[in-house]
Amino acid sequence: MMKWERLLTRGRFGDKPGFIPTQAARSEFEIDYDRIIFSAPFRNLQDKTQVFPLPEQAFVHTRLTHSLEVSSVGRSLGKSAGEYLIEKYPSLQKSGISSSEIGGIVAAAALTHDIGNPPFGHAGEEAISDFFKFHPAGKIWENHVRLEQWADLCNFEGNAQGFRMLVSKQFGLKLTYATLAAFTKYPRPSQIAHRDIARRSQKKFGFFINQLTDFEQMASFLGLEKATDECWYRHPLAFLVEAADDICYSIIDLEDGCTMGLVGFDETVSLLSPILKDRFDPKKLENRTSAQNLGALRALAIGELIQETVEAFVQYEESMCKGNFDKALTDIIPSAKHLQKITEISVKKIYRSKVVLEKEAAGFQVLEGLLSVFSKALYHQFYAPENFSGQDKSILRLLPEDFPLKGWGEEVNPYPLLRALIDFISGMTDKYALNLYRRVNGISFPGS
User: What CATH number has the domain bearing residue 295?
Assistant: First the structure.
């Protein structure tokens, strides 16, 4: 059974052996939060769409605003759950852990939950995967890498990319192990012998094979236990991070859909009111704008869902520590059926709307085009030098200054090279990816 005293230990990546953090004005987890806020990957979320392309006439959420809101909900969940944990386990208070610190862990982890997402959202993830699965310029690498590495390349996963970025020396975040574990919803690599479909934590994967050592280091420090030889149990706070995201995208995507005119106002009210139960008063909707009413209903619904989620966490906390509980908390709360109905309407009227599908189609074209151009140039330079052209040279000069362009060849496994290429492409904002695609394909010129 996992122990909270160890799960909440304050150590972090980069600490020297034997290092003990000193109590300061900011807790170790507040330091995590601040480092994330000021990091380049987090700032890039401001130009990555959540669902909709950014319209000129109405506000809809970007990945940045979504992440800030998920973090706010996560802090509330973590702090409320923390009050219960400290009362139940007096040893936590003796070790100096407060409910605010537990809230800080969930807030910091929630802030990063989308940090590994590529341009164009989930369509971007699929586009990167499809490039290696189906495109000739991607499939050509298959015989040069190991089987488990090829599984990584053919299954791009934003959660795993996020973990890679958070432990990368490139960004120097050096987060606490507790924040990283709370971030990791899927504590398993991409290729496993058997996936238990009943366990939510095995639905996807949470780290690429070359981050296995980093994950093992974190798991060992916190005392995360294994479900199988290849999969670990979740850190219990990861359930709260997941719930914060589930709550926000369910309610706020619906709000955005209503703002964009894809879901009617009356229908939106009918979807949110069952969550509010007796707190819903139709008279309070009178003499106010639709935007004001949407904002009020959204706030009330989120407040109710936070309360229900904390109650579910309290009920199953011991089972989480034993590894017996492995479901999404929002699937078992009293409002689960109402959230499911919102999801069904959102899929039909929002996620499959013309404006969203057009964005996704553009994302496939842009990312496949960029990966193709850069992948061909790299392959020609290191594996088919007789085909290395002047165009390839120009393309490779567009890579970042710190891109690892030396030391590759026929006898060297190119997996790290390809991971660096994916880092470059997936780290782009939507707008930068589109502009670069146009330029490398001669559709537009710099300055035009």
Answer: 1.10.3210.10
